[in-house]
Known about the structure:
This protein is of the alpha/beta class. The protein has helices at 9-18, 34-42, 56-59, 62-70, 81-88, 92-102, 112-115, 135-140, 174-186; strands at 23-28, 47-52, 73-76, 107-109, 120-122, 149-151, 162-165, 194-198, 202-206, 211-216, 221-226, 232-234, 237-256, 261-273, 276-279.
Amino acid sequence: MMGGGSDLDVAFEWxxxxxxxxxxxxxxxxxxxxxxxxxxxxxxxxxxxxxxxxDRNSAEDPAVAAIIGRAEAVFIAxxxxxxxxxxWKGTPVQxxxxxxxxxxxxxxxxxxxxxxxxxxxxxxxxxxxxAELHSPEALSNPFHNQVTVVSGFLKIPHLDNLITDSxxxxxxxxxxTLVFLARIMEDKMAKHPREVAVDEKSTVLVESDGKATVVGxxxxxxxxxxxxxxxxxxxxxxxxxxxxSVYHVATGGHFDLNTWTGDGGNSYSLTVEKGVVRSTQPDxxxx
Length: 287
């Protein structure tokens, strides 16, 4: 689970090793095949290829699903996760990716590719071009038009009941992610949702048993768990949300997604009062 920004060699090497030298497939909705030479330089893979699926008609093509089915590792590139939902959700592409996952094949993603890995995801469905949802806008109105939470795309072990986010500290996404968690609870999508949020230049490497290691040069990963439902989560009213537990894991630290415990990290709590995020850390920092 890569948080975006510069790609990390160690993460791609890890994913390649999990594929045992098999066929490595990059999926994207737009862009080129520049990942091919990069991955080939890191991996001893049978093949490295990029499959661009730019619309729903392409995603309905049985040949496209067949290519995904033959991959030994799948990596979802960055971009706009709304495209992955609009173009791939409910198509043979979605089925083929989930079949690969169910067969035990490794999967990875960066930025938008990370954002779609959890059971819940920020769909970015109503975002204007190049205008992402920012924390102050979401905190002041949890039902802002751009707060779109989607579920039912990928089924990855240990990422059920969980939302993922990227570019986390770098783009100051803590406030909006607290809104996503609040909306999941307010909309009765889940009673006890959790979150894995990864900063730029950081990656969370999750083994098949749910135990994870954080690598990279960014600020690492943040594991969030609300302890109860939000007090106020209404249209055009600032969010009130108390006692959200956070465990921050820097590079070299570990976290167990099954027990929701870690080592080498820092534990603190966040509270949102009238749309303002407050922290129990000594310096009052939210990250």
